[in-house]
Amino acid sequence: MTSQKHLKAAVRARMARTGERYTTARRHVAGHTAPPPLPGVVPGYRTFGGGRHHDSALLAHVLEATGVTAAHDGRPLTEPMVAGLAGGIGFMYFSFSYAGHVPTMTIVPRIHPRPFLAGALERAGIRHRAAETTSAAKAGRELDAVLDAGRPAICTVVRSALGYGDRLDPFSAADPYDVAVVGRRDEHLLLDDGRLEPNPVPPELLAAARAASRASRHRMLVVEPGGAPVELAGAVRASLAVTLHDLTEDVTAKNFAGNFGLRGLAKWADAVADRGRKTGWSRLFDSAGAHASSMHRLYDCLTTEYSSPGAMRPLYADFLAEAADLLEDGDAARDAGDRYAQAGELWAAIAEAAVAGPMAPYRDLVERRLELLLGGGLAVSTELAAVAEETRAFLAAVEIDEADRVAQLDAIAELASRVVPLEREASEALAEAAVGPRTARA
Questions:
Q1: What does the pLDDT look like over 361-414, one tens digit per residue?
Q2: Contact status, residue 435 vs residue 429, Cβ threshold 8 Å
């Protein structure tokens, strides 16, 4: 038990230092080595799970397996580069309160609602094919054809339909989730879905999970082989412009526009600090159970749910460091990267503040779940369901009196009051990087 506690402490320290997800930090701390080529896996697919951000790491794995490289150095695209080309960071905040239900909220700190994976491929000029169909039979045939050709396919599923039984929040349980189908073995399909090894699932289970995603039924994304090396400088500049637009301009209908970008960030920070209005968190989440719900959602959203630790800012800072070396006028990108790295430290502190005090057991439950997901897949679905039930019971029973709730909100509000101006400063540096200083002065 003591060694396990020391391992977790070392993992948490590495997460704070690097912005890695729990699974990736644990792999480095524990000294996990990549397995040799595995039977049934398509040629060239060598890396599974890990990474700092699920979607970015997944696409980086697929691009490497397909032979996509950068023109300037001939190497595969890194995870930070993939994340940045996709648009990287953003911000969306909504709270929800329905009669008969505990109030909840969601934050998406990455670019949203733009397509993430397809956006990266389009801006990089990487040849790819996207397919959707209402026919499960057709979707199955198309997937088989891709695997027969020795290539991986990214498929959109509803994760809860894959049988993990580990999702706590009904909103996120129904969200689309991308996995790579990377081969076949013993009448099972092999998935890259977050584990450190291929996860074998029955074809009918994957088909049901694909069909369950109503907004993107049977969606499949395939990277075509044989493309030219990627000229990254222009793609980087285009991606910076997209990120800047979505942070500072309308990205959706006018009545919801204020929930996105820097305005959405300010709206969230105001709500956390507000002690009077119904939309303020002290009144919106005005019981121990409701407050615990908001804190667990805040922690999840800033670390693993739609993000990587630090609200994805450390990962984006690393992208900007790479981008600066590709641009003739990279100083603004470096400046923006430094500011986003600082913001990432504040976001990490906000996440930690959400699981402080009486909420501390929640982080341990999250880590138990991640340990199971790291190596278990369907084989540990019963254990995952048990951890989920234990987590629900904890959130329902945790005792947090009003004084402690307000104190916790005050601590988060103080950090939020520092992150908002820093994010604005970072976006100003991003604006200069997006257009280049000569254009900006013209």
A1: 999 999 998 888 876 666 777 888 899 899 999 999 999 999 999 999 999 999
A2: no
Dist. CA 232–CA 311, nearest whole Å? 25
User: Do β-strands 220-223 and 128-131 pair in parallel, antiparallel, or remain unpaired?
Assistant: antiparallel
Tokens 């879905």 belong to which residue?
A: 193
For the ranges 338-342, 355-359, 437-441, the lowest mean pLDDT is seen at: 437-441
The full set of domains in the chain, from first to last, is 39-68+128-223 (3.90.70), 79-112+232-437 (no CATH)
Residue 121, pLDDT above cutoff 90: yes
Cα separation, 293 vs 440, whole angstroms = 45
Element containing residue 224 per DSSP (H, E)? none
The DSSP string of 135-179 is -HHHHHHHHHHHHHTT--EEEEEEGGGGT------HHHHTSEEEE
Tokens of 85: 């080309």
The pTM score is: 0.92
Alpha-carbon 129 to chain mean position: 23
- Other C-beta atoms within 10 Å of 342: how many? 19
Residue for token pair 């060239």: 44
